[in-house]
Design brief:
183 residues; alpha+beta; Outer Surface Protein A, domain 3; three-stranded antiparallel β-sheet; 3 helices
Length: 183
Amino acid sequence: MSRIGKKLITVPKEVKVEVKDNVILVESAKGKLNLPLSPRINLEIKDGQVLVKRVADTKMDRSLHGLYRALIVNMIKGVTEGYAKELEIIGVGFKAGVQGSILNMSLGFSHQVNFPIPAGIKIETPKPTQVVIRGIDKALVGKVSTEIRAIYPPEPYKGKGIRFVGEYVKKKVGKAQATGGGK
């Protein structure tokens, strides 16, 4: 049996979990999330706990068993605490700011980059060089943060660009240093 899948999921009192028409619904004051349920997986909800069971013991069922348990735990954490990703912008004159539902970024291009903020996501810029993405859906927060990073990924020579906070960028030696100092 799956080590992850067989663990019970405890549901906090403020969270409501139910299954309707093969869709898992998780709801709290922060919002609602839903996930289509595979016909290979069954859920038992009782006494504030959720147990994920698989129908058979095939390789696919074993894979889905742990996956669905992890997805349900992420949904419960999302509607109680939420998720956040932080990006930092490095470069002279590089900055970002939120105006309404658009993230405006000056990244050294000839134009400003405007990124529309999707529904369910909140973006803050505590400093002009820091972007914080928040939301209740873990996958959506990760997707939006990687889309923003992909606009100007960190380059390996000077380190300019958008990176996750704490991300290490391995720097390369420049052309002058590689050939002996340009003599």
